[in-house]
Design brief:
This protein is α+β, with helices and mostly antiparallel strands and about 850 residues long. The protein has 26 helices and 30 strands. The strands form five sheets. A nine-stranded mixed beta sheet has the order 24-22-23-25-26-27-28-30-29, with helices on both faces. An eight-stranded mixed beta sheet has the order 14-21-20-16-17-18-19-15. A six-stranded antiparallel beta sheet has the order 9-8-7-6-12-13. A hairpin with a 2-residue loop joins strand 26 and strand 27. The longest helix is centred in the first third of the chain and has 34 residues. It is elongated. It starts with a helix and ends in a 10-residue tail after the last helix.
Length: about 850
């Protein structure tokens, strides 16, 4: 209920300063319209993200809804100004809806009871939310399968969240993510650099730094051993591989542990990691970064093990990919590895052994920091990097891992200089076995074959224009549907994966990180062709058949269409599920008829309902603005007119041109409001006969001589208008009936509307009803919605351009002038129909019907 002091203030304003109150209400109304337009725009933006499955960070969804919430709250406040104490329940209704939406917007909380640091052998089962998928899987295979892993500990997800909170980074990160354009490589790069710099320049909480130092000392002891820090984010190495998207820091000295830790957690916001997470619909708040800190193995050989061929339903063998030294060049796709295929049965028979083309290897850097590439010596270059017995041993590990986890595994391993094998990582293998039926298509292809080399890293067929990418900076030139052609399979390509139709590279491996990401997204990928960048030209249209390792010139009709459409996982992603939950409280419209008894605040169920309710009630309130102070306003001006209608105008701002100065009388040419000019032009139509109307009554002059004795609400008083540059509210009285027109006629169509109410008359009840029927049919023919009721009618028109609105107001003016005595002149229903048809004819002359 409105406070007493506010109610008294409102009564005083109505009584003693009506023009001030009208101006205040008008400003509230215009402000409400602005918030209404903004609200609809923001609601449509959220719906667009849902319906078009647009990739945005959830921070954008949160920011957009908070702006929408502010707009709705402001609308309600402006409606209170327009109608004090009338719709008080609306505030509580909105708060209830808003609270439900905020539950869906809320970031995932974290368990502060979890430790900041844990030894690997202390990690319990099902602890992915605490230590991330990589660390959880590694601990599980050590504990349950007794497979050898490097000694180490994990800095948990809670530690990351403590770090962010301690440095108050979340607000700025959320702001940057909300403004991120995932389709723009420059936007991705700029945002990534800002966030990563913030993290690297921030300090660790003292308790976290102390805990890390303590566990590091336990791991290293008195030895001088290098460490490896590897990402283990929540959601990594799960349904979403994040293969190659996060940062690892290798060959780290104990004294550099803190800086290396910040490098790894900053990698959560690298451009490629941001892109991967957003493309897959994951929330930043639900993917905190845990970090593995393990003893760095000085590897003689390293590689990848697939416990199943990712391109086949056959599950009788494992595939092992091996290189000399560390696995970094293999997973980045810069070398072609040695390949073993070994049967899973107890015989461990080697089905296939193939030596790759290798020229260099990655080793621990001589300066004790990081890794470096060195040339292979001749004996290594011409030999296989893994002996048969070790390969068979790894195959046995693969069988155990697949049995334990219940699904095929993608495993990283290494062998130290003494020949001991270690397991470094295991995660679900991204397999395409279910897509076999989509690939087995044989058609005759007449096109020229440009390339018939390489290995399939991801199945499929696609057509597009070649975009040759020789450095990461070239990524910005990619357009949707490009065939990316490059020297190697850089993990950076994952950030543009949704823009690609296919990938073809000179060098690379099926086991590389990009191969995993390409299989996830079903992007046909052909690697290790040896000469793609030499053979294929920039801008050339080609068709890539990765299954047959062929690149055709031009489009091969029927081939690319045959490739199966990848399953749509994004619609079921966490971001989309939350957005759908939010929009259930935002989009549905339950209040459709403003004239229905159910059109009340209590029946608003959604944000859209509140938007509709507030807008309709605001228009209803301003509809009667001119009536509130008729005859009492100060500062009005009289319009000079050739027709016998006395119109007094109150300028609410820019409604009258400055050239009119302070003159008490203004001409039509002085009007700045296009709506009033158009309406007046219609009223002055040559087809209207004004001679039968008595002279207009000048209420200001009558007020002066009558000393205010006459009731100023009398129907005999003159007409009145409130105008601004584009807003019009006019009350026109024609003897025994009157008309109210309210509207906006400006440059923005979505904000324009015309509302009209017509009632009364001097004729009999039947004549008045038939006049309403006349008005209804003519207005409907002009595009208005009409609501006739007995001898009165309401009509409205929404969202027309300024030109259309002016045309409609001109028709409305002509219509009002023509029908002023129609209730007396009309004879019967037949006559009514004749008049309607004649009025609607072009260049009609209604004045002949007397």
């Amino acid at each position: 209920m409105m406070p007493l002091i506010e109610r008294l203030r409102h009564i005083f304003s109505r009584t003693f300063t009506p023009d001030h109150l009208v101006r205040k209400k008008y400003q509230a109304f215009r402000s409400l319209l602005e918030f209404d337009s903004l609200g609809h725009s923001l609601m449509a933006r959220l719906e667009q993200v849902r319906d078009e499955e647009e990739r945005v960070d959830f921070c954008f969804v949160r920011k957009t809804y908070l702006q929408l919430s502010h707009a709705i709250s402001a609308m309600i406040e402006e409606l209170r100004t327009l109608a004090p104490s009338r719709y008080e329940a609306l505030t509580d209704i909105f708060q209830h809806i808003d609270q439900a939406i905020h539950c869906a917007l809320a970031a995932a909380g974290y368990d502060r009871s979890m430790p900041q640091v844990l030894l690997l052998d202390e990690i319990p089962d099902h602890s992915e939310k605490m230590v991330g998928g990589k660390a959880a899987n590694l601990a599980a295979v050590s504990r349950n399968l007794q497979l050898p892993i490097p000694a180490g500990f994990v800095v948990t997800a809670r530690a990351f969240q403590d770090f962010i909170k301690f440095n108050r980074l979340e607000p700025e990160i959320d702001k940057l993510l909300a403004e991120l354009n995932v389709e723009s490589t420059s936007s991705m790069k700029a945002t990534s650099e800002k966030i990563m710099t913030m993290i690297k320049q921030s300090a660790l909480p003292a308790d976290l730094e102390e805990a890390m130092s303590f566990f590091c000392a336990r791991l290293v002891g008195t030895r001088t051993i290098p460490l490896a820090l590897r990402s283990s984010a929540v959601a990594e190495d799960s349904e979403f591989s994040f293969a190659g998207q996060y940062r690892s820091v290798l060959n780290v000295a104990a004294e550099d542990l803190v800086e290396a830790y910040k490098e790894v957690i900053a990698g959560k916001y690298s451009a490629r990691a941001l892109s991967y997470r957003i493309i897959n619909g994951l929330l930043d708040s639900e993917t905190p970064m845990a970090v593995l800190v393990i003893q760095m193995i000085n590897a003689r050989a390293s590689g990848i093990l697939y416990t199943q061929d990712p391109f086949s339903t056959a599950a009788d063998s494992v595939k092992i990919y091996s290189v000399w030294g560390l696995a970094d060049p293999l997973v980045k796709g810069s070398v072609a590895p040695d390949v073993f295929e070994i049967f899973k049965d107890s015989s461990r028979t080697i089905k296939q052994r193939e030596r790759g083309t290798k020229r260099h290897k990655a080793v621990l850097a001589m300066d004790g920091k990081g890794i470096e590439l060195i040339e292979l010596d001749p004996s290594e270059a011409h030999s296989i990097s893994l002996d048969d017995e070790s390969a068979k041993h790894l195959a046995a590990w693969g069988v155990k891992l697949e049995s334990h986890f219940g699904v095929a595994q993608d495993v990283e391993w290494c062998m130290d200089v003494d020949g001991k094998l270690y397991l470094l990582q295991t995660r679900p293998l991204k397999s395409e076995a279910t897509a076999d039926a989509c690939r087995d298509i044989a058609i005759e292809v007449p096109n020229e074959i440009l390339l018939h080399e390489g290995e399939k890293a991801a199945s499929g067929k696609a057509t597009g224009k070649v975009a040759k990418i020789l450095s990461d900076s070239d990524l910005q030139k990619l357009t949707t549907g490009s065939v990316l052609v490059a020297p190697t399979t850089s993990p950076e390509f994952a950030q543009v994966i949704t823009r690609l139709s296919a990938i073809v590279t000179d060098v690379g491996s099926v086991a590389g990180h990009l191969g995993s990401v390409a299989r996830e997204h079903r992007i046909p990928t052909l690697v290790n062709t040896g000469k793609a960048t030499c053979v294929l030209r920039d801008g050339q249209t080609v068709t890539v058949d990765a299954d047959r390792q062929i690149v055709f010139a031009g489009e091969v009709r029927g081939l690319s269409e045959a490739h199966c459409t990848p399953p749509n996982r994004y619609f079921e992603s966490p971001v989309q599920k939350r957005l759908q939950s939010i929009l259930k409280h935002v989009s549905p419209l339950n209040l459709t008829d403003p004239r229905d008894a159910s059109f009340t605040p209590e029946n608003c169920r959604t944000i859209n309902d509140i938007l509709r309710f507030a807008h309709e009630k605001a228009i209803a309130e301003v509809f009667s603005l001119g009536e509130e102070g008729r005859g009492k306003f100060r500062g009005t001006r009289k319009l000079k007119s050739a027709i016998p209608v006395s119109l007094h105008i109150l300028d609410l701002g820019d409604g009258i041109r400055k050239r009119a100065g302070e003159r008490k009388q203004v001409s039509v040419e002085d009007l700045n409001n296009p709506g009033l000019r158009a309406l007046w032009q219609g009223l002055n139509h040559s087809g209207i006969d004004w001679s039968s109307l008595p002279p207009a009554f000048d209420w200001q002059e009558f007020d002066r001589v009558s000393a205010g004795i006459v009731d100023f609400e009398s129907t005999l008083l003159a007409s009145f208008a409130l105008v601004s540059k584009d807003y019009l509210n006019i009350n026109i009285r024609f003897g025994y009936h009157f008309v109210v027109i309210d509207g906006v006629c400006g440059h923005v169509a979505d904000k324009n509307y015309i509302s009209m109410r017509f009632e009364g008359g001097g004729g009999g009840s039947q004549g008045r009803r038939m006049r309403v029927q006349f008005l209804s049919q003519v207005l409907q023919a002009s595009g208005f919605k009409t609501y006739p009721q007995g001898d009165w009618i309401e009509a409205d028109l929404r969202r027309s351009t300024q030109e259309e609105s002016e045309n409609k107001l001109q028709v409305l003016g002509r219509l009002l002038g023509y029908t002023r005595l129609l209730d007396i002149r009309i004879k019967d229903r037949g006559h009514l129909q004749e008049l309607i048809e004649e009025f609607l004819q072009k260049d009609s002359s209604p004045q002949h019907h007397d």
